[in-house]
Design brief:
The chain is mainly α. The protein has 2 domains: about 110 residues; about 90 residues. The chain is about 95% helix and about 0% strand.
């Protein structure tokens, strides 16, 4: 940087010197054409030299800028290399942690497999005990329940009992039917008697319309009493007949 500043200062001094010389030479060359031509050539050379120096200075500045950029890049590269080395170290640490975790996982899985096997064995034992208990219950129920032969014998006995009951019910029904026939005949007899009583009452009423003596009324009263005395007997027989019909219907199959 100092070198560049020194060159710039030297360049300024050279330009001032060239300018002073040029002014002096112009005054001198106005008097001689040859000198004027030589002066022109010299000025052109000086100008080219000055341009070359400017280009050189510019190149030096650019080179210095490039060097600064290169230095920055090298610093960044060094920084990145350090970061890469740091990351490499971290990666190694992570690899070590991963290995430790894998080892721990394998150990836990082995312990879990053993625990799972033990638990499965325990569940299997419980299932076996439950099945044994169910089998014992089935055997106990089988012992308590009768055999097919015993059930058949019991059903035959029950069937004979039902048949005997049916025969008894049929006998009762036949007896009731016979009694009903008897009651029907008695009812017919009572109906006939009732009709005769009604006829007698009608005849007595007809006689009463024309009779005027007391015995006739007494006879009517006796007839009426006989008729009323027969009515309860008829009503009682009819009620008993209905009761027998209900009993008979209750034994129908």
């Amino acid at each position: 940087m100092r070198e560049v500043q020194g060159r710039r200062k030297w360049k300024g001094l050279e330009e001032q010197r060239t300018l002073f010389l040029g002014i002096e030479m112009v005054d001198f060359c106005e008097k001689s054409p040859l000198l004027k031509m030589m002066m022109v050539v010299r000025v052109v050379g000086e100008e080219r030299k000055r341009e070359a120096q400017q280009r050189e200075a510019k190149l030096l500045e650019e080179n210095a800028a490039y060097e600064r950029e290169i230095t920055k890049c090298e610093a960044k590269i060094q920084e990145k290399l350090q970061e890469a080395e740091h990351f490499q170290q971290k990666l190694k640490e992570l690899d070590s942690i991963e290995e430790n975790l894998k080892t721990e996982l394998q150990r836990v899985q082995a312990g879990s497999s053993a625990s799972q096997s033990e638990k499965s064995a325990q569940l299997m034992e419980e299932k076996i005990q439950m099945l044994e208990k169910k089998w014992a219950d089935v055997q106990e129920k089988a012992l308590k329940q009768p055999s097919p032969a015993q059930r058949e014998k019991a059903l035959d006995k029950q069937l004979h009992s039902l048949m005997e009951q049916l025969a008894a019910k049929q006998a009762q029904a036949e007896a009731l039917i016979n009694e009903i026939h008897i009651k029907e005949k008695e009812l017919e007899r009572l109906n006939a008697l009732w009709r005769r009583v009604e006829d007698t009452k009608e005849a007595t009423a007809a006689r009463n319309r024309f009779a005027k003596s007391g015995p006739i009324y007494g006879y009517e009263t006796d007839t009426d009493l006989d008729g009323h005395n027969n009515l309860p007997y008829y009503s009682g027989g009819r009620s008993e007949y209905r009761q027998r019909l209900r009993i008979l219907r209750s034994f129908e199959f």
